[in-house]
Request: fold
Amino acid sequence: MSATDVPMWQAMLSAGLQLGTAVLLVVLVARLFHARFILSGQTFSMRRYFEALAGRV
Reply:
C-alpha cells in the first residue's frame, strides 16, 4: 500500500513506539484518576495533588 518498500525494522519500531505510548498513557491516566479519588472531598491544593500522584498521601 505504500509507494516504496518500508524496512521491517521501521515497521516494528513504529508498532513498538505506539504500544509503549499507549501503555504509558493508560498508566498516567490511571494515576490521575486514583489521585483524584484519594483527594475527593478535600479542598484542592497543587502540592497535595502532586503528592497523591507520587503516592505519598
